Amino acid sequence: MANNTEQKKRVNFLKGFTEDASLMRLFFIMVVAFILMTIITKGKFVTGANISSMATQFPEIGILAIAVSITMLLGGINLSVVGIANLSGVFCCLTIIKLEPSIGTWPAIFIGLMVALVCGLVCGFLNGLLIAYIGIPAMLATLGSQEIFMGLGIGVTEGAAVFGTPDAFTFVGAGKFLGIPGPLVVFMIVVVIFTILLQKKKYGMELYLSGTSPKAARFSGIKNQKVIIMTHVLSGVLSSVAGIIIASRANSAKASYGSSYVLQCLIVAILGGINPNGGFGKVSGVVMAILTLQFLSSGFNMLRVDSYFKTFIWGALLVGAMILNYYGDRISENRKRRNAEKAIEKES
Amino acid sequence: MANKSVIKLTGISKSFAGVKALQDIDLDIREGEVRCLAGGNGCGKSTVIKIISGFYKPDKGTIEINGKQYSHLNPQQAIDLGIQVIYQDFSVFPNLTVAENIALSAERLDGKKFVNWKRVRERAQEALDMINVNLDLDAILSELPVASKQLVAICRSLLQNARLLILDEPTTALTKNEVKSLFKVIKDLQAKGISILFVSHKIEEVYELAKELTIFRNGKKVIEGSLQEFDRKKFVYYMTGREIETVKFKPEHIGEQPLFEVQNIGIKDLFKDVSFQLYPGEILGITGLLGSGRSELAKALLNLERITEGKIILEGKELTATSVKGMIDAGIAYVPEDRLTEGLFMPQTISRNMIAAVIERNLNKLTLIDDAGVRERSEKWVEELKVKTPSTELPVQALSGGNQQKVVIAKWLATNPKVLILNSPTVGIDVGAKADIYDYTRMLAGRGMGIIIISDDIPEVVDNCNRVLVMKKGRITDELSTDGLEEDTLSDILIDANKEAATK
Amino acid sequence: MKKLLKRNEFYVAVTLVVMCLIIGLMNPVFFTLANVVSLMKNGIIMGIMSFALMLGIIAGGIDVSFPAIAVCAMYLTSKLMESLEYSGPVIVPILMAVAIGTVLGLLNGIIITKFELPAFIVTLGTSSLFYGLLITLAGSKPVNRLCPSMEAFGKAQMIRVTSGSTTATCTYTFLFLVAILVIVHIILKYTMLGRGIYAIGGDRVSAERAGFNVKGITIFVYTFIGMAAGLGGICHAMQARMCIPTDLMGSEMMCIAVVVLGGTSISGGKGTVVGTLLGLMLITVAQNSLILIGITSIWQQLVSGLIILAGVSLSAYKELKNSRKIPKILDDEMEV
């Protein structure tokens, strides 16, 4: 019996190790990217100015990537996050501009933020309805709704950027709290909330289970449609949070901003170990992936790399990350199976 | 034994990542012979099939076909040599027509680059004629019943000049009647000189069909010989390595008040006027052919399909919940028919699977998931149901079929049910695990739980239930006590059902 | 008749007719021959790419890199011809573009099959990879003057009609659309390869067991899409009589919509050329007629998005209903 518990401990340890193997790999890649960039920029990379500028840059994509990731955990995807972000930003700015003269700056900003969040919620809800109740595959539904959200934004703004919000509005995007850049604060809050939501709450468990097998979930009394709607609402709200940061940082909004963000979000999600078939992946992985991407991006900027070359790098990274995962999974899969088989053989 | 060998395996061994799946296997299949390959789960049956059909490369040993020695085959070679496998899922194309499914592979093997639709239809018809079966050539496969899909798969292999037909658990998804017609087809094929390797662990079928028997256990051939040499006891002994005796279920104590009752429930087009009562301590059997409405009835009891008429009553109170969750909370548990897709989240851990139906009962004061508690309770269930696993944090897919089914049962027992409904609980499970499951359900009944077993496995129903309801065409037609009930009597009642249908 | 009602093509056709009638009633210009010819011309590029894309979707994978491939093919070809001051026959640039497309498509196919990765995400990656590399290496300056033979081919009018005050023409590139349509139809209907594409889309594992060369067929499909994208790209440049490397990018959604509206199942295994042709007509009409019924350009993206989503919703909802249907069991309709 003592032998048995000993064995159990060992298997638990091994299992923990293999399950988090991809996180370990990710951590390693992140460190390598950091060191690499420090070396090739001859140390300019680790100056306070650059670190602080990085801290304001990555949160918006980081938040969008989490928005995409949770829908991927469900085995779906959300390609409309950028559309939602921009539309929310547009509505936010328009509301503030409209209300500021009559109710004052801060109340207008507050209502503007609320309008943005509601916009994200409604857009997400719409996506959820299309997927859960009409039965459109998530990819197609959100690719289509992206057209609509962007089309609506273009229609409302006649394709132009919205200017004229008060300077106070930049408190989120350009302000600092306790010396930490605003966007980073928001990002940290989002990460904490979603880590708890996914790992420790009932919703998270339902999300992982429903993403693994909607059929088995239904037979277990989990309401898949509710989980889908909830996930897309959360994804929509997160997108609008990113939209607020973007608009606040620029103190303006544009319906067609950041079209390359979708790709970057996907890269971050995949690199972060989110399984596109659903059911597996953690927020911590996404965080490490976004940091890696930001290190590379800043480094490239310092080297004055052309933005199209960055597009190329992102594409290559996405394909490369998947190929890497392919080999990584094969190795840890084999190891996992071998351990399990050995353990079971001994047990019986 | 004058017939010459179709295929002869000598000293075949194969291991995966250090685990020996096959050890020094000899297997000799002769022309026109029906050989049964039996063994529990994980005994190496499927590995042998994959070696013969060229999907695996053996580590050691030789394969001899037509006097030629091969160290291994590739899939195309195997097909060219006349080896055809009908897999459990038949490997047909759901989106294509019957004609295409049957004839396309043969046309492709003939090296045709283009499709001649006329010839495809002709050859398909020809194959159907060979086994005396009539099917609409233009029907789309996904719209056909399971048995027809299997026939299509058999026809397809015939057109590819099968000399050895391997049937992998071919009866799993078939009703008794369909099994009968399948056996007729197999005997016809045998008469045509085609050898059959029939892979199964169902004792009755083996006796009915095969002349020669080979039994594998833990990757080794334990015995081989003519079927006459085996009685059932010996068969089971060699399969499991232990002797299992069946004892008929006798309820210890049946409560006075009905625990669970349905009154005239029905779903439009599916079933109607279904009424029965279940008393605490009872094991009630519901049997019927596939498509009799038995699974639909089962699903309705958990709100997986909504009833359109009638009442469901638990402990004297009508259940009005409209959701699956509502039924689970009321105390109804349902172990579904297909554990792989309906019962389990295969890649997720055992403990996650176990709490899936009652996540909210595993939260701490802060409404966060109580990980330690979850692990503790999972370990308790693993021990209680004798699930063979070193850890509850392993993915369920690492377990064998029998242990997977135990996890499903544990998952439902964790909901603390008053009524446990088991649909086809032992399909595809080896004899040892089967016995464990039966013992456990009897114990639960002894504790006063109400249990319903839905199954078309007649011995299972007769041996393990005290009462059985027969379902035909969406209605309950008979109610029998299993006390003194012969298996044949019950199967006759089921088959009569089909005669009636035929005369209608 | 019953069979007809069951077919998705029937509903697409009805929708198309209804839509045409509504637009025609709102603005009679719609039914003029000139408008029809201009619609024909406007559908060419999208059509060439959609028919190829359909092969991918039937096989169960979505390629979103074809616009990038098309741009690579047309821009590299145009640039090279410009710098060589090429003055030979038009077939050389066309073949070159097709060759570039084929190579890039082949690359997609190899990555997807070798590493068993989802086509959608791989092609999303290769799309940026190809496009980013192209612009980095070749710049983004438009080629304003194509080589003489391409210029001439783009100018030549296969059809020219005048209705009232408007004159519409259609270029010879239309013939490429017809050719692709015929080739795809023959492949799908009459070749083992085509049936293999359906087989893979229906059940991949079964296809493997039945001895279909699944990897080979998959590689073929993505290579074919690349090839068609190359052809579509060069046709676009010739029709526009210049080559702007930002053109075509973002057109993948429209092409996917064409295929899906035409009844091709997004999960693979089902789809016909006729359906896609109807889908193509539907989208082409929707896209090009908004202006006729007075919708200004700033709202066009929204309206066309709504039309697409509505169409996709319809076919998805129908599929959902079908999948939920349980065969009748109760005695009055027991099978014999």
Short descriptors:
heterotrimer; A: about 350 residues; mainly alpha; globular; disordered N terminus; C: about 325 residues; two-stranded antiparallel ribbon; 14 helices; 2 strands; about 70% helix
Question: If you had to describe this structure to a student in words, what would you say it looks like?
Answer:
The complex is a heterotrimer of chains A (about 350), B (about 500) and C (about 325). Chain A has about 350 residues and is an all-alpha fold. In chain A, about 80% of the residues lie in helices and about 0% in strands. Chain A has a two-stranded antiparallel ribbon with strand order 1-2. In chain A, α5 packs antiparallel against α6. Mean pLDDT of chain A is about 85; it is low at about 1-20. Chain B is of the alpha/beta class. Helix content of chain B is about 35%, strand content about 25%. In chain B, the strands form four sheets. In chain B, strands 6-7-8-3-9-10 form a six-stranded mixed beta sheet, sandwiched between helices. In chain B, β9 and β10 (about 220-225) form a beta hairpin. In chain B, α3 crosses α4, α3 (about 100-110) runs parallel beside α5 (about 145-160) and α4 (about 115-130) packs across α5 (about 145-160). The longest helix of chain B has 17 residues, at about 485-504. The two termini of chain B are about 45 Å apart. In chain B, about 50% of the residues are buried. Mean pLDDT of chain B is about 85; it is low at about 495-504. Chain C contains 14 helices and two strands. In chain C, α3 (about 35-60) packs across α9 (about 190-200), α4 packs across α11 (about 215-240) and α5 packs across α6. The model of chain C has no long low-confidence stretch (mean pLDDT about 90).
- Uncertain runs of chain C are none
Q: Biggest sheet of chain C, open or closed, and with what strands and sense?
A: 2 strands, antiparallel
The largest contact between protein chains, plus residue counts on each side, is: A-C, 44 and 45 residues
Q: What strand line-up does the widest sheet of chain A have?
A: 1-2
Write down the overall mean pLDDT of chain A.
86
> Which value, in Å, is the CA radius of gyration of chain A?
22 Å
What composes the largest sheet of chain A?
2 strands, antiparallel
> Structural class per helix/strand content of chain A?
mainly alpha
